[in-house]
Amino acid sequence: MTVTIARENAIAVVTVDNPPVNALSQALRQALVEAVAELDADATVKAVVLICAGRTFIAGADVSEFGKPPLPPHLPDVVARIEAAKKPWVAAIHGSALGGGLEVALGCAYRVAVASASLGLPEVKLGIIPGAGGTVRLPRLIGPAAAVDLVTSGSPIGAKKAEGLGLIDAILDGDVRAGAIAFAGDVAEKPLPQPISSRDVPAVDAGFWESAEKAVAAKARREIAPLRALASVRNASETDFAGAMAFERETFLDLRGSEQAAALRHVFFAERAAPRPPELAGITPRDIRSAAVIGGGTMGAGIAAALRDAGLPVVLIERDAAAVERGLANVRAIYEGSVKRGRMTQAVADERMAGVTGGDDYGLLADTDLVIEAVFEDLAVKRAVFEKLSSVCRPDAVLATNTSYLDPNAISEGVSHPERFLGLHFFSPAHIMKLLEIVPTETTAPDVLATGFALARLLGKIPVRAGICDGFIGNRILKVTRAQAERLLLSGATPSAVDAAMRAFGLPMGPFEAQDLGGLDIAAFQRKAARARGETPFALVADRLCAIERFGQKSGGGWYDYEPGDRAPKPSEAVAAIITEEAAGRPQQVWNEADIADAILLPMVNEATLILEERVALRSADIDLVKIHGYGFSRWRGGPMHYAEARGLSEVVVLLDRLASDGLADPPCAGLRRAAEAGGFSGLAG
Ligand code: 3HC
Ligand code: NAI
Predict the structure, then answer these.
(1) Would you say the CB of residue 103 lies under 6 angstroms from ligand 1?
(2) Ligand 2 centroid to 678 CA: how many Å?
(3) Which residues are CB-contacts of 190 (< 8 A; sequence separation ≥ 6)?
(4) Is 325 noted as a catalytic residue in this protein?
(5) Which of 8, 151, 215, 682 is a good FRET partner for 452, with 20 to 30 A between their CA atoms?
(6) Does 131 contact ligand 1 (Cβ within 6 A)?
(7) Region for residue 187 given its phi and psi (left: phi exceeds 0; alpha: psi -120 to 50; beta: otherwise)
């Protein structure tokens, strides 16, 4: 039963119970309409409390119904029916009132919430706008400026802020049900408040809409929903209720079928599936109550902060006392940065820092549950670290390496109880980037693998299981991205044209700007190692830039020139001359933005398909998450695999064949051809 009705004297309590998050399925919408009719007709009922079972108030429309035709009763009609109820309905909010859930609450005469509740209209994050009066009732209740903030950002707010805005009428202490019933008792005999739909919208300052539009456009980049949401709030502020509802609904239905909404829905479900891979169902992870990091450099400090932010006490081990001080200073710098940016108070930063103990004595780790190694990328150094850990740590302590390119199987040789060893590959900066690649070795026990996923949940990261190969999932694809970018240079494109094309596609940065920011030396070091293994990485121009110490911004020049103190890239004549020399004798062509993007993205998809075929990734959606959360691939594109599927894999194959025949890419792999015939990647890895 999705809705039950109980009576507490003259108060009816309507309980929604539609696990996991009380999403507004068709059955729930129907049941709500029926509940209004039943309670309207019951003369003994003076007021109604609308409350939810489980962990949250209604968290929104049922996103899984979005791909299908909408079924009646439609949500705007459900909200209108509640608003027209003869008795006051009181929305009793715990957990989250999001999207359609908040819209239902806006139909109620009153809204009350516990202090921990949050409220918001996250629709723009799904590529749509509110579709049941959110953009129309909200400006009527809290004014256009606050409505614009909520609707265009999609970010929820806490109960306290909601009360300040007039979005809720009271914050409840203690039990939500008892508090809401008492509130309903107080308002039962009062005249019904004016329905929000018939209230006027407060006036805005001159120029408000123009400046809001500029601000929203700048933030949204190429996402369409935020501007459309703004247009709907504006329209609602300037039109009558019925006209505004029609405009909102039309926009909602239009966006619901859009490519961006499909991509964002794909990411929504991929993110929610990632923490619970079916192959680990029923396996209990080990308890993690304390952690240690070996190495306090760029990654070690970031990982220590990430662990600490999740509430774990952290020990940071370095080589000697001076290195310990440097390592702790690196962690402190992270917290100081957070304080400076207003993300954290000094008191919180101090408390975090107080939970990080530094030392060079491995004896400190005798009772630590989890140790993550982030020392130099050198097999011998890493093995020596794990040898020490093997002798001091408890046999059930989980031991992890953050290596980027070394083989975790090789690192784990000699580790005692090797079933407790795995790769945990964080991304820089580790306290911010959401991706965590989890890399089991041949000997990793299932409960240790499950511990990796549990750790990701604890740290608020998106976990993706990766098999062992050079670069795991993300960096292996990155190598292809860079090689393709160079191929383009040698066939007539410039670094700025390539970067501009990738920005136009929706990436935050092009491949050359990104390399200049991160430094070209790291990749050069990896190419050296790859050549030592007998491989032939393709980086003619990058190798020449490194040979003349053009390592990027840090050396004053890389793919671009930089003025001192200025991060703006300027085209470099020296680089152009090197490109011309290396390109001599190769066919040249004129490149437009779309063709440049294809020449980079489609080979990435080809490599990703190989990754799936080799079961280095288990699901194509996992690869999308890797690119989105580790490399800034635009969410609204859905990741490279979703992008390729949405575009049509047959077209991808044709274009790749063409690039290959021009010598500009490898031909499509057999798996990609098979996936094209099957119409998608699903099943390829199974
Ligand atoms: N529709 C369908 N399923 C949903 C859902 C929704 N709106 N929201 C969450 N779920 C599912 C998840 O897929 C997951 O399913 P699973 O257990 O089978 O994997 C399950 O509910 C639990 O979700 P989380 O893991 O995210 O649970 P948390 O407790 O961590 O978070 C939450 C709860 C804060 C409510 C979070 O789920 C959330 O933010 N949900 C999305 C809310 C949202 O975007 N609502 C707006 C929808 S659009 C809308 O309402 C349009 C309207 O204007 C017409
Ligand atoms: P780094 O050079 O900034 O830090 C390494 C730290 O390890 C130094 O502080 C050094 O003093 C310490 N160290 C070296 N040997 C040690 C030992 N025996 N015991 C204790 N401490 C020791 O290097 P970075 O960038 O932090 O990389 C560390 C690891 O993380 C490498 O394996 C790297 O491949 C990996 N990684 C790096 C990423 C990056 O973007 N920098 C991203 C993801 C992984």
Answers:
(1) yes
(2) 43
(3) 88
(4) no
(5) 682
(6) yes
(7) alpha
d(CA 298, CA 302): 6
What DSSP assignment string belongs to 338-383? HHHTTSS-HHHHHHHHHTEEEES-GGGGTT-SEEEE---S-HHHHH
Q: DSSP character for 194? A: P
pLDDT tier at 55 (50, 70, 90 boundaries)?
A: very high
Catalytic residue among 83, 123, 163, 645: 123
pLDDT at 683: 66
Pocket of ligand 2 (CB under 6 A): 294-300, 317-319, 323, 327, 374-377, 381, 385, 402-404, 426-428
Q: How many Å lie between the centroid of ligand 1 and the Cα of residue 58?
A: 9
Cβ atoms of residues 394 and 412 within 8 Å: no
Decide if 123 is catalytic. Answer: yes
* Residue found by looking up tokens 């990766």 in the block: 466
Measure the CA angle with vertex 501, ends 495 and 502; round to 5°. 95
Task: Give the number of residues written for the chain.
Answer: 686
Q: Is residue 21 lining ligand 1, measured as CB closer than 6 Å?
A: yes
- Ligand 1 geometric centre to CA of 59 (Å): 6
Catalytic residue among 8, 34, 38, 103: 103
Output the CA torsion 147→148→153→159 (10° steps): -20
Task: Give pLDDT, residue 104.
Answer: 98
**What's the 377 CA to ligand 2 centre distance in angstroms?**
6
Is the CB of 99 inside a 6 Å radius of any atom of ligand 1?
A: yes
Residue range 110-168, pLDDT digits in tens:
999 999 999 999 999 999 999 999 999 999 999 999 999 999 999 999 999 999 999 99
Contact predicate 219/226, CB 8 Å: yes
**Strand order in 47-52's β-sheet?**
3-8, 11-16, 47-52, 89-93, 110-114, 170-172
Does residue 172 surpass a pLDDT of 80? yes
Q: Predicted confidence band at 1 (pLDDT cuts at 50, 70, 90)? A: low
Rounded mean pLDDT of 415-424? 97
DSSP code for 290: -
Q: What is the pLDDT of residues 516-567, one digit of tens each?
A: 998 999 889 888 888 988 888 889 999 999 999 999 998 999 999 999 989 9
Ligand 1 pocket residue status of 96, Cβ below 6 Å: yes
Instruction: Let me know if 41 is exposed, middle or buried by CB neighbors in 10 A (0-12, 13-18, 19+).
Output: exposed
Query: Ligand 1 centroid vs 554 CA: distance in angstroms?
Result: 43
* Distance in angstroms (rounded) separating the CA atoms of residues 554 and 550: 9
* pLDDT confidence band for 311 (50 / 70 / 90): very high
Output the pLDDT for position 515.
95
**Bridge partners, 316 (sequence order):** 293, 358
* Mean pLDDT, all residues of the chain: 96
pLDDT of residue 635: 96
